[in-house]
């Protein structure tokens, strides 16, 4: 596996490979579409967990102290994941607003922006996994205790 390119190297590579700024920007635009679609999936899973909690949460939380605290932690991490997704990964800044002295500088800025969104997506995903893990632990405990 090769070492990832820096943002500047990646921009240069895109310009060399595609020989056109518009084509290079199109590649980056598609990558933003992937981030947005995956972030929407994270929000969908979080919403599902929050909705289910509204129906069965009180009963599960009343079953034992562990279930109660695990559910609270699960909901907190799930909410954190949604906040990170909304403020970080789904925050909008148009690629046409990103300039540079040269096409390579502009592409470098776009790639750096994409990388920041990718990091926010990963943070949202980790928070969701932690939250759902606590949530499932709460439900499993409830099921075992009856």
Write the layout of secondary structure elements.
Elements: H1 7-18, H2 21-63, H3 65-89, H4 103-145
Helix pairs in contact: 1-4, 2-3, 2-4, 3-4
Outline of the structure:
The chain has 146 residues and is an all-alpha fold. The chain contains four helices and no strands.
Task: Tell me what you see in this structure.
The chain has 146 residues and is mainly alpha-helical. It is built from four helices and no strands. Helix 1 (7-18) crosses helix 4, helix 2 runs antiparallel to helix 3 (65-89) and helix 2 runs parallel beside helix 4. The longest helix is centred in the first third of the chain and has 43 residues, at 21-63.
Kindly report how far apart the N and C termini lie.
50 Å
Query: How large a portion of the residues is in β-strands, by DSSP E?
Result: under 5%
Q: Low-confidence segments, ≥5 residues, pLDDT <50?
A: none
Computed Rg = 21 Å
Count the DSSP helices. Answer: 4
Report the helical percentage. over 70%
| Class per helix and strand makeup | mainly alpha
- Assign an overall shape: rod-shaped
Question: How many domain modules?
Answer: 1
**What multimeric state do the chains show?**
single chain
Count of individual beta strands: 0
The main pleated sheet reads as: none
Mean pLDDT: 88
Please provide the ordered H/E string of secondary-structure elements: HHHH
């Amino acid at each position: 596996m090769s070492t990832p390119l820096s943002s500047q190297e990646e921009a240069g590579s895109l310009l060399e490979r595609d020989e056109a700024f518009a084509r290079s920007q199109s590649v980056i635009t598609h990558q933003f579409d992937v981030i947005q679609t995956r972030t929407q999936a994270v929000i969908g899973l979080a919403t599902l967990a929050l909705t289910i909690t509204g129906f069965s949460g009180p009963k599960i939380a009343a079953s034992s102290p562990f279930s109660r605290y695990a559910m609270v932690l699960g909901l907190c991490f799930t909410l954190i994941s949604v906040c990170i997704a909304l403020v970080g990964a789904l925050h909008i800044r148009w690629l046409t607003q990103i300039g540079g002295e040269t096409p390579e500088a502009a592409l470098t800025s776009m790639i750096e922006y994409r990388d920041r969104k990718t990091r926010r997506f990963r943070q949202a995903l980790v928070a969701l996994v932690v939250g759902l893990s606590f949530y499932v632990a709460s439900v499993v405990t409830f099921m075992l205790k009856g």
